[in-house]
Amino acid sequence: MSKSPTQTIMRSGLGRARGLGSAKTGAAHWFAERATGLALVPLTLWFIYSVLSLLGAPRAAVVAWGGHTVNATLLLALVLIMFHHMSMGLQVVMEDYIHSEKRRLVSVLLMKAVVGLFGLAATLAIIKLALVG
Amino acid sequence: MTDVREALFIARTTDGRTVRRPLSPHLQIYKPQMTMALSIMHRITGVALAVGALILASWLVAAASSDAAFDTVSMLLHSWIGKLALLGWTAALWFHFSTGIRHLFWDVGHGFELPQVQASARFVLIATAVLTLVTWFAGLLAL
Predict the structure, then answer these.
(1) By Cβ atoms counted within 10 A, which residue in A110, B25, B45, B105 is the most buried?
(2) In this complex, which of B17, B64, B104 lies closest to A4 when CB atoms are compared?
(3) What ipTM was predicted for this assembly?
(4) Is A63 an interface residue toward B (CB < 8 Å)?
(5) What is the pLDDT of residues B64-111, one digit of tens each?
(6) What CATH topology corresponds to A24-131?
(7) Number of H helices, E strands in chain A
């Protein structure tokens, strides 16, 4: 019987398993995706209703709508939660499909920058609509 | 070895031989199924909606800026290509919305049995179609 190459590993099974697998922070990311998704259910329904009521309206009507505190509050909640949700979602998609570590890091950081800037711009626009009109 | 993760495939059998761990079957092995189509579509619609969210941010910024900026964005959204994109985003939104709720049910431990999974998949497709049609009918009536 031919002998296969044998290798003696001088570590216990637990020692080998330690440090592999989860990066230890995945649960918070996973939970935040679900929590933001859940919050987006009623906010989306409200937003679709609002958009339908504003269809074809002139800018003045949109400004008046955004000037109501309740609308501005819900809009802010929608934009902040939505941009957080999508930043996390896009990150997972990139981490799953971009295998080169360098390209993955650059892509995720670039995506966070774009999503962050658009989210900030939208937030400022809502505050401006609410305060200035 | 092309990838450092290959190192994790090295294992030993009970008699001490080193072996490469078997790789679980991947996508091309399986018969295409509705459940896997819905899963990848959840991601694709999510990415599409992210693009839509950037347009939404632009619309808000335009509304807060000037009549000229608002008219430009309105014109783009009312063009045929803008309308087509909005129709696509409406469908993508209701799909992602429905599959998202389906995921939330799974996350709290409901609906894992195969017949339930297939029923919820069909329900998601029907809900997407109905909600998209209702939204656009309501929109056309409002205009």
Answers:
(1) B45
(2) B17
(3) 0.83
(4) yes
(5) 999 999 999 999 999 999 999 999 999 999 999 999 999 999 999 999
(6) 3 helical TM bundles of succinate and fumarate reductases (1.20.1300)
(7) 5, 0
